[in-house]
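Before the break, one more example. Copy the sequence into your notebook; we will annotate it together after we see the structure.
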Amino acid sequence: MNQPNSRDPDSFEALFRQHYPALCRIAYGVVENEETAKDIVQDFFLYCWKKKEELKIHSGFVHYAARAVKNASLNFIKREGRIKFESPMELSAAASGIPDETYETDDSRNAALWAAIARLPKQRRAVFLLSNRDGLKYADIAAQLDISVNTVKTHIKLAYQYLRKECGWMVRMIGLIFFFTK
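Here is what the structure looks like once it is written out:
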């Protein structure tokens, strides 16, 4: 893992202690069972420890961990037969807790989101995409666009406000995206 001295048991324990509660909340949001959520997160950390020599995380540990735990949780409920997913969007909707009936088709949801993103002012759109699509940190975005970190934060904040207004049905999903990127 590309974390500071992640092969060190003390450093790994610090990662565990720091991120365990938030990862349990993510898992619980999907599986709706506290013990199962804890098991999924513990299994994730056990996997990371076993693979510590070969595991390469490029997008940051928090992003990687949140996505891995969410996917493991979704796989658990699918294996359990509680939910059968017809499409990746339904899978994503289940993870965000949004009922399936609030969605139209996958194409129209994606088109609506991308259309809303396309309507953002040019620099705001660039900042938003660098953060959410490309996974860059605020400081990296600021350096790349030659703007201040505070300007990056302002653009991100305003982009989310706009997208929440434009895509009200996606408020919870966008909140998850924001959570996973920082």
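The longest helix spans residues 9-31. The chain has two domains: 9-84, 102-181. Try to locate both features in your own notes.
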